[in-house]
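hi support,

uploading two proteins for the ticket. first:
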Amino acid sequence: MYVCACVAIAGCGGAAPSSSTQQTSSSRTTAASSTAHHRPARRRRRSQPRGAPVGTVQRVNAGTSTLSVAITKVLDPLTGTGAALVPGTHAVGVQLTIHDDDGGTYDSTASGDVSLVTSAGAASPLFIKQGVCQTLLTDFESLIGAGETHTGCVGFSVRRGTRIVSVRFSPHSRAPGSVTWR
């Protein structure tokens, strides 16, 4: 098909490229390929995920209140949960502490505010029946008054073989004002 197109163009009165044009084009190709052979091979560097190290306290503006939030631990794998897992996944827990520094009462949901990012994308929140990260009837992020500190754990379902990249806290389940840990 390509040959037919060239013949059709040449048959319509198109001028054939001059030999100097062909030679210049050929010289560039040769120069480029010879340069490529002399470059040292670059090792691809894995980019460092953005965010503070786990354990670091970060301040978050949450509208009417200011919070100090710390992801204290990522439990991977999380065992003995009694959770209904999809085949090929396992449970991961994210433990955190939230302190309402000042302002109004903070009232939200942990499964909406905390997200876990893996090498395959965002992980799904998981209902945990028992253990360290048991999902409570009353969310630990409910009604945190000024000066109060609440701790808790959020469970996630993560595909096996994926790498945990970061944990994000987004006040009131919104991206503006979110903070990240790696």
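and the second one:
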Amino acid sequence: MRLSGGTTGATLGGDDPGIAGLWWLRLIIGVGWCIAALVILQFDDASAKTVGVIVGIMFLVAGCQEFVLVALGTRRQWVGYVFGVLFIIAGLVALLNPEDTFAGIADILGFLFLTVAVIWILESFLVHAENALWWVGLIAGLVMLVVAFWTAGQFFFQKAYVLLVLAGVWALMQGILEILRAFALRSARG
């Protein structure tokens, strides 16, 4: 059985035992994202600065994760580099001046959530023949698509709380996807 963890359709199972042996790394990354979601969703007094710092850190981590996926060969190089750079830039913008750029962060967040949604949806269709869990990525991508438009439209009155909740949802979906991919790699290995 061939399983793919990235947009390339690169095999992560039987054809490359070195990468399949790193299933535990994806599990650790997934658990880390879930812990980040738990921490983010625990905030009860959100400020623009808090949101800016948390979202900035999340974008930096997501950018680094894209570069790691390229290095492991599970992400098409140009896709990983483009989105890795976009996430890093967004993270730096958010961290440089989180209070003054809060409205900008909301706009960037909506755009980047849309970008993540498109990646997850496309990835699910690209790997559906090789990965029995392709539908999980599709559902996560569709949920993220709703979150992107919700963020861009700023339908809520308390922007700081909304952005924290949406950042927490993003982290949780990313964690669940990584955990599922880790167990798919593990089962393909055995």
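thanks. also noticed: The first helix runs from residue 17 to 20.
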